[in-house]
Design brief:
Blueprint lengths: L1 E5 L3 H17 L6 E5 L2 H6 L6 E4 L8 H11 L4 E6 L5 H6 L4 E4 L4 H19 L1 E6 L2 E6 L3 E7 L2 E6 L3 E4 L3 H7 L14
Parallel strand pairs: 1-2, 1-3, 3-4, 4-5
Antiparallel strand pairs: 6-7, 8-9, 9-10
């Protein structure tokens, strides 16, 4: 996981880093890579992985709303936390698909609660699913599964890129997949 912090106020960047280090320490997890930027254009130019972003709105160059929209186009599964002192941007932030809207000064408890939700969702998105395809196995992300259909004594797993036959029943798929994301629509489909 890679977390980006974009704010033109270096004290806010330092505070978010400290909160994140404390958050992951409390969870007994290694703190992921934390990368900071002082403007949105630099963040957009970054070629690295982008999993979660803390993004100010009013900065030099591109504002946070525009940056958020661009990030969501390029990385649909990114988690964006808007951090700002201005309440008037709430609707714009939601239109740009922000995951959370945190007011400055930051409330550590709200940030931690938002991180709990983001980490659960991130885990669900990145959960690997192992398919037995004939005599080989294939690992895919649960987020890539569109639907599963029962067919004779096997199931077909339809993903964003392909369809795979799998030696698993609909019942076993229901027990395997995240219940918040997948549900059975009929006897033969999840």
């Amino acid at each position: 996981m890679r977390i980006l912090i974009c704010d033109d106020d270096r004290f806010v960047v330092k505070e978010i880093k400290q909160y994140l280090e404390e958050y992951f320490s409390q969870k007994d997890n290694i703190t992921p890579e934390l990368v900071s930027f002082s403007d949105g254009d630099s963040l957009l130019a970054d070629q690295g992985k982008k999993d979660l972003v803390f993004l100010d709105i009013e900065m030099p160059g591109s504002n946070g709303i525009r940056v958020s929209s661009e990030l969501k186009k390029a990385y649909p599964d990114i988690f964006i936390f808007i951090t700002t002192s201005y309440d008037q941007y709430l609707d714009d932030a939601m239109d740009a698909h922000a995951f959370r809207y945190l007011s400055k000064p930051l409330d550590k408890n709200r940030l931690f609660a938002g991180m709990d939700r983001a980490m659960r969702a991130y885990t669900d998105l990145t959960s690997p699913v192992i398919l037995r395809v004939g005599k080989t196995t294939k690992t895919i992300s649960e987020a890539d599964i569109i639907y599963i259909e029962a067919q004779d004594k096997t199931t077909l797993v339809h993903t964003t890129s392909d369809t795979y036959p799998a030696n698993k029943s609909i019942r076993l798929w229901l027990d395997t997949l995240n219940a918040c994301t997948f549900f059975q629509t009929s006897k033969s489909y999840i």
